[in-house]
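We close this part of the discussion by returning to an individual protein. Part of our work consisted of pairing the sequence of a single chain with a tokenised description of its backbone. No coordinates are needed to read the tokens, only the vocabulary itself. The amino acid sequence and the backbone structure tokens for this protein are reproduced below:
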Amino acid sequence: AAKEGTPIYLYGGNDTVSRDLVDSIRRRFPEIIIAGAEAPPFRSLTSEEDQQVIERINASGAKLIFIGLGCPKQDEFAFEHRNSLNGIQVCVGAAFDFHAGAKGMAPKWMQRSGLEWFYRLCSEPGRLWKRYLIANSTYIFKVSKVLLFRLKT
């Protein structure tokens, strides 16, 4: 985005994370065009607020919209706004927190070994246990079911 002059929009986090993220990105990529950054409230938006978000993002001219609301909120937001936002939406999970310096990343060896999820679970067990145990197990079950059904036919 910085090399091509593509404006970006940052949607997610909280006010502190949003401010620190913008500072961090600008230090790392001085040429970047940050068309906007905002931290939505930690509740569902009203219809009016939602429309205002769409208008702000579209009016910014951003071509890439990074969404850091966490799973599944960011995915639901992207899906619900797929036809109303003019830029490409990219769901980035905890990347805002990492790049803003609000949360530490797993050691490189854990990242390379596919164990970042384990590091995050140990760091935030109360928040993440349900996602990793229930959601991931459900996903594995559903994928396995589809694969097994294909083998039978």
About this structure: Residues 121 and 129 are 7 Å apart (CA to CA). The mean pLDDT is 90. The radius of gyration is 18 Å. The first helix runs from residue 15 to 28.
